[in-house]
Structure formats: C-alpha cells, structure tokens
Design goal:
- The structure is a single chain.
- This protein has 306 residues and is α/β, with parallel strands linked by helices.
- It has a domain at 100-300.
- Helix content is 43%, strand content 17%.
- It has a five-stranded mixed beta sheet with strand order 3-4-5-6-7, sandwiched between helices. Strands 1-2 form a two-stranded antiparallel ribbon.
- Helix 6 packs across helix 7 (115-125) and helix 7 packs across helix 12 (273-283).
- It starts with 5 loop residues before the first helix and ends in a 10-residue tail after the last helix.
Length: 306
Amino acid sequence: MATPSRAVLEQHHAWVAGDNAWQREARLRQARWREGQGLDAGLHRGVPLGSRLTEADGLPPRMANYLTPTIRTVVQRALAEKQRGALFKEDRLWCDLLSSQPLCFNLFGELAADLKLAAQVFEVWWPRRVDVVESIAFEWSPGRGDMKYTGNKSAFDVFVTYRGPRGRGFVGIEVKYHEDLRGSAVRNDSRYRELTRAHGLVAECAMAELETLPLQQLWFDHLLALQMLAVDDWWQEGMFVVLFPEGNRHCSDAVARYRGLVGRQDTVDVLTLESAIGGLGQATDADWLRALSDRYLGEAGAVAGG
C-alpha cells in the first residue's frame, strides 16, 4: 500500500498529524477493516477516529477487536489470571484497533487454545527446535522488580514454553504493530551495565547506545531472557524475539541496529508479521487465519497455505 493521501485518510477518519508513513498506512488499513465489519468509528477526544471502536462494539461481551470466539475467551482468561503488575491497558485491548496488544491475541490466541497446532506452527517458524508447546501466556514476566532478573518491570508480550531436542526452552516475544519503539526512556541503572558485561552482550564502547531510544526496550527484554537462562536451572535454551510488520521501518531499523551491536545472536531473533502469518498458513487453513491476514496485511497478505 502506498502512503495514503491526507484526503483519503480524512475520508476514513484516519488522519492524525503526528503519524509517520507506516502509521498512516496501518491506521487506514484498520479503519477500512472496521468499515468492512459494519462497525462505527469510536471517538478520540470527542472526534471520530477510524482506528477505534465504539465502547458498545469493543467492550465485552461484543469484543469486536478480536477475530473469533476462541480468541475472546483467551483474552478474558488472560485478564482473569494476569500476573500482579501486568500492564494490560484495557482501553487499548477493547477499542484500539492499532494497538499491538490486540494483535498479540489475534495472532497467538488460537494457538494458546490448541497447543498441538502451536507446536506445528513453531516447527515452521523455527525448524527442529520445538517438539511440544507446553504453554502460551500474555504480558508475562518471571518476576517484575525481582533483582534475580533485571529488577525492572520488563515483561514479554507473549511467552511460550516448550520441550524440544535440547530440552525445555522458552520464546519471549515483543510484538509491535504501529508502534515505533520511541516514547520515554527509563532511567538507567548501573545494574543493567553489570548484567550486560556479565553476559558478554556488547562491547563497552557501544554500551551507551543501548541506554537510549529506540534500543532500550530491546536491550531490557533481551537481558531478561539472558538472566532467565543464567539463574533458572530448568531452562536448557531460550530466546528473545521481536515481531513486527515489514512496513514498520522504525522497528526494523532499530532491530537491525540492535542486532548489529550485540553478541549472543543465538538468543535473539526477528519474526516479521508477514512471515508469521505465512508460516501459520503452512500449518492450518482455518478461517481465522484468513481473517487475520485480511485485517493486518490486507490484499498483500496472501496466506501461504490458504
């Protein structure tokens, strides 16, 4: 999709002056998806915004932000069983079509309800790594604020545990859709540098780059995965994965820059949304997969197995 014009965006209530090119494309895609579902635009500061649902459509029991009844059940269970301190932002969960939190559930919710299918999908994404998927959790941390780990509030958007040829392992996934890894940096703590040195993650001269945006969140999540491998003796392997659409150049550039700086490449990986959905299509031809592709990838999102 070419970067849409202001006139087209305004036609779909999707013009936001501060959006970058990818965000404009993604916002318009979600607005058009909503229109195709026959849903009204929700309000933002009293004005219709095409990438939002009304509360009547977004809140339970309707939950129109989610593609299937199974996914809606997974969302409600995740909220009921959430960890203390888990940052589920319910306004985004219910009414924000652009947020990465609904994407997490729309992409992984059916897999969380069918772990046999999940194992088949992971075999496509990471061959010869996963035999059995044990669990899929959302907004998960081994211990927020626990000095055994990073001592901060870092958590994985999606956390998968599995058993494979090398034993018990995990995949901690950070999911982005329209987000650009910017926002506000967290105050630096000497502990992060100490952990980075202990894990041999980066040369000392490059340490300062990790402390600034847009790399800081990637650094914190990667450190969390490395600490889990170091201090928990039940993990034989594990990795941190960043998942985002190919069109989100802010994310792809930041991830490429991060991976160019750090070592321990066996513990960090990238999965694009396009590759994720294509891999799903090699494991299932279920209707929800077509709905997922249509919503997030549009016409360009041909499903490999569909």
